[in-house]
Amino acid sequence: MPGRAAHGGATTTASPIGADAAGADVLTAERAHLAAAREALRRMREHAASLSADMAADWVSRMYLESLLDQRVAALADHPDTPLFFGRMDRDGGQDRDSPDDEPAGKRTGESAEQSVEEDELTTMYVGRRHVHDDGGDRRPLVLDWRAPVCRAFYQAGPADTMGWRTRRRFGFRGGELTAYEDEPLDAPVHTSALLTAEIERPRTGPMRDIVATIQPEQDVIVRADLGRTVCVQGAPGTGKTAVGLHRAAYLLFTHRERLARSGVLIVGPNRAFLAYISSVLPALGEVRVDQATVDDLLGAPTGTEPAEASAVKGDARMADVLRKALWRHIRKPEEGLVYTSGVARFRVPDHEVREIAAGLRGTTRYAAGRDMFAQRLAHRILVLMEQRGGAPDDRVQDQVARSRPMKRLLDAVWPKVTPELVLHALLSDADALRAAARGVLTDEEQAAILWARPPRSHRSAKWTAADRALLDELGDLIERTRSLGHLVVDEAQDLSAMQLRALGRRCASGSATVLGDIAQGTTPWSARSWDEVLGHLGQDGEVTELAVGFRVPGTVLDFAADLLPHIAPGLAAPRSLRPGAGALTVRPSGDPVGDAAATVRGLLELEGTVGLIVPDAAVGAHAEALTAAGVPHGVLDRESTGDGDRLQVVPATLAKGLEFDHVVVAEPAAIAAAEERGLARLYVVLTRAVTTLTVLHAEPLPAALRAPAAP
Ligand SMILES: Nc1ncnc2c1ncn2[C@@H]1O[C@H](COP(=O)(O)OP(=O)(O)OP(=O)(O)O)[C@@H](O)[C@H]1O
């Protein structure tokens, strides 16, 4: 039925399934295919469960194999609420068959060859979350994993390039039930998909969900970028940066499974609440082995705070130079040579030779490796002396010398063992040490800003700030190399300091990265002004691409927030929303924003979807109390928690980044803007969290940058 538009209802509406007889027949055939695929998946699961790890040679291998088999069985689980496939592609001769199950299936793929379906042989393919095949000898594919190369056409094919396909069919589901379909002839002008619109409009009910059925062409290009390429995405609020980053991780894991299983993939997000919010996306895509961490998880949580000027200096990339000098200053000039006694014989390396060896190694390698090499070179000198006196020492003797007491004494005097904490404590406690390391790099004022006024007695009692943590990590790497992962996805990257970016860069030094963010949402004292700068600090060559279409925020709300852009990111164009959102915005003066907010959210809870009450951090307690007093059930988000799954969350403004709610109430924008240096950027973040409605309540006048819209 080429040219047919939509049949049945969209995913969320009650659907007149099969509005005409032909449509009903198609749905019946597609449901039969779904049932067959479910049944085949069940058999694949049973088969996987019947495999035994007994053939493993030893206990460790058996445990490993058992865990692999368990993972395989888990990956084959059928979630009754998620459709096994969401799309279908047909070439000529494919779609008009009576039943899709009758047709030739292209290359007979097996489980181990899921990615090698030969495109030319497929006349019809179903695209879904995982590969399903029947259990005939030929293992005919019933559903292809969306990440298989052939499935790129489902996302990319269009009038400009049909990629050899004739029609794209999208399916509408309710729970696991197929309720509708929609056909799109690929050579006709692009039309707006009702099913895509329904998916975008679907109320949010909990954590973030995957977008695998509706990835847009410009997003798909980023998702499928090669593993070797670092991609940096600038995108306005709600353009799908986070979603794209997560799908890219899933794509890379599928495409380079073995390599990345060894080297690892890590998602880095701004805080725990955010990580909890995105935590179900990758498991829903069948990827359970991806680590997710905050920068604090990686570098250590701060135990102290400091003025913004101090963090700004410590976050600057020039600190790398200062730290390098500070570390190598721990090597001291040898006062004495090395004397080694073996029986009655004494062997001596004179002090000038010890000096030469130390000077030759200084700064050429990691500090700890340099220390070992220093010991080995000295030991080798002793070995040569032994040989000169007629001995025939072997390598074991060299090791013995390298571990001997006199050597240890010399090492402690010349090339002492150090820790990052010890070096940083010494640097920040002592104006002379700081001046020596920072000469020509930091100004006197900058040195004064980071020097401790009252140094802690030892590095053990020091309270380390977030900026210090990045410095300690840099020192850690100068002492011993940090292990690199295969791929890093860094979200909200605009908020990271140069030194934090360097810390992340070390963790993907031999891999690649997906860097996501929005310059306009930068809220830290060190927020990035350009992506080239960010990539430079990360040490990655990457291309910057832009996502311009918003999927979350209604147009009226986005336009309202965009008035802030000239003040926070003058170079950026105003974002565009896919959804007009008439009536989505209410801005209301209020004599009592706390009381009003409680009444407003109570009303919003009558509607479908999640509700976020975003307030100045200092007002969280007052709002929570008012809600409790009014008997409105709610959760309160903090840095470590997710608000316990309540439909209404009280959200401190500083934790709103990256989150979204169907209905958002913002109480007192002026106080949010005034609370921090980049307060207007914070307000921009806060005003762009809503999917359906935004209500702004204010006792104080709105910040001048925000024009109050005319009353409806
Ligand atoms: N192709 C798509 N199909 C359906 N929904 C989408 C699509 N792309 C993004 N979305 C939805 O839009 C919303 C915003 O996406 P996401 O959070 O990834 O945006 P973001 O750019 O990271 O936003 P922010 O900068 O505000 O954190 C999410 O609900 C996401 O599921």
Q: Would you mind describing this structure in some detail?
A:
The protein has 712 residues and is of the alpha/beta class. The protein has 28 helices and 23 strands. Strand 4 (132-133) and strand 5 (141-145) form a beta hairpin. The radius of gyration is 31 Å and the shape is globular. Strands 1-7-6-2-3-5-4 form a seven-stranded mixed beta sheet, with helices on one face. It has four domains: 6-202, no CATH class; 220-297 and 488-550, P-loop containing nucleotide triphosphate hydrolases (Rossmann fold, 3-Layer(aba) Sandwich), CATH 3.40.50; 338-410, no CATH class; 555-698, P-loop containing nucleotide triphosphate hydrolases (Rossmann fold, 3-Layer(aba) Sandwich), CATH 3.40.50.300. The model is unreliable at 1-6, 8-18 and 96-116 (pLDDT under 50). Bound molecules: adenosine-5'-triphosphate. Adenosine-5'-triphosphate binds next to helix 4 and helix 6.
Task: Explain the layout of strands and helices.
Layout lengths: L5 E3 L12 H30 L8 H17 L9 E6 L33 E5 L3 E2 L7 E5 L6 H5 L10 E8 L2 E9 L8 H8 L15 H7 L6 E6 L5 H15 L1 H7 L1 E5 L2 H7 L2 H4 L6 E4 H5 L8 H8 L3 H10 L9 E5 L2 E5 L1 H11 L5 H22 L6 H8 L2 H10 L5 H10 L1 H8 L5 H7 L15 H14 L7 E4 L7 H9 L5 E6 L13 H8 L3 E6 L1 E2 L4 H8 L2 H4 L7 E2 L7 E5 L3 H12 L6 E5 L4 H10 L5 E2 L11 E5 L8 E7 L1 H6 L4 H9 L2 E9 L14
Parallel strand pairs: 3-5, 8-14, 8-15, 9-10, 9-13, 13-14, 16-17, 18-23, 19-21, 19-22, 20-21, 22-23
Antiparallel strand pairs: 1-7, 2-3, 2-6, 4-5, 6-7, 11-12
Helix pairs in contact: 1-2, 5-6, 6-7, 11-19, 11-20, 12-18, 12-20, 13-14, 14-15, 17-18, 17-20, 20-21, 21-22, 25-26
The structure holds adenosine-5'-triphosphate.
Adenosine-5'-triphosphate binds next to α4 and α6.
